[in-house]
Amino acid sequence: MKTLILYATKYGCTEKAAYLLKSQLRGEVEAINLKYVKVPPLTAYDNIILGGSVYYGKIRKEMAQFSQDNKEMLKSKRLGLFICAGLKGEQAEQELRVAFPEELYSKALVKEVFGDEIYTDKMSATDKLILRIAKGKEKGNTGLALDRITSFAHAMN
After folding, report:
1. Listed residue (50, 70, 52) closest to 61, CA to CA
2. Angle subtended at Cα 37 by Cα 49 and Cα 87, rounded to the nearest 5 degrees
3. pTM for this structure?
4. What distances in angstroms separate CA 66 from CA 36, 115, 126, one per listed residue?
5. Is the pLDDT of residue 156 over 70?
6. Dihedrals φ, ψ of 150, to 5°?
7. How far apart are CA 14 and CA 83, in angstroms?
8. What are the beta bridge partners of residue 6?
């Protein structure tokens, strides 16, 4: 089994999640940041996992564009979807649902919200201010949900 994890990240949380996930998947696994690496032909993979960070209610533009442009090919694969986002409960599930095209969301074998980590040292002043207003956080991490990553890997394996 060959698995491709494609991700888009702003500050690095999604990259960390992608590599934690990669370490728990069986077979040959590649992880690629859509912003920096050309995507190999999807036909070479059995499993495709898409992941992205959500800011201001939207998934990263690289992931939105990729998933829209490759919908038909992605629907023919064993598909997993994840986001890294700070919201919890029903709000987080809604962010996950709207992050990807409906056809992919409904077809995905597994879909999950992995939580978030806040890297204030990498954030712009504007993002720090918005974070404080929106979440009441000045610093610190809420953390990735490692149990959700493990469960996701188990379902894909």
Report:
1. 52
2. 45
3. 0.86
4. 13, 22, 27
5. yes
6. -65, -45
7. 7
8. 32, 50
